[in-house]
Amino acid sequence: MKPLTRAALLLVAALSTSAVISQVTNKAAQTQRTPQFENEDVKVWKTVVLPNQPLAMHHHDHPRVIIALTGGTMNIVEQSGATETHVWETGKAYWLPAMPPNTLHSDINAGEKPMEVMVVELEKEN
């Protein structure tokens, strides 16, 4: 292999690696929901909510359990503007009921550090 070709390949590899690292870094610095598991009975996802980066408005048809992996204060803001404040301690679980029909809310981290929670939503009512 010619030295120029080898150098060109190394440059392409370095640029590709840099792009991947940049994508991972940018994704890690965003509020996000990451699916973990789903079947006909339950849906599980991990949510990271950064300060001042609320989740988009959404609805929960079913009750759910929140497990605080990294606790903090979460404001649940309804589309009407009403706000419900929850203080979730690291390592503890909390119950949230299904939302009324035709309502939406957003989750806003009221603290200065990222919050990370596991959400276990029941898909069926007994």
Give an overview in words:
This is Cupin domain-containing protein. Keywords: Signal. Residues 1-22 form the signal peptide. It is a single chain. With 126 residues, this protein is an alpha+beta fold. It has 2 domains: 1-30; 31-122, Sandwich (Jelly Rolls). The chain contains 1 helix and 8 strands; from the N terminus they run αββββββββ. It has one helix at residues 3-28, and strands at residues 32-38, 42-49, 64-70, 72-78, 83-88, 93-96, 105-109, 115-122. The strands form 2 sheets. The chain has a 5-stranded antiparallel beta sheet, with no helix packed on it. Strands 5-4-7 form a 3-stranded antiparallel beta sheet, with no helix packed on it. The protein is globular and about 40 Å long. The termini are far apart.
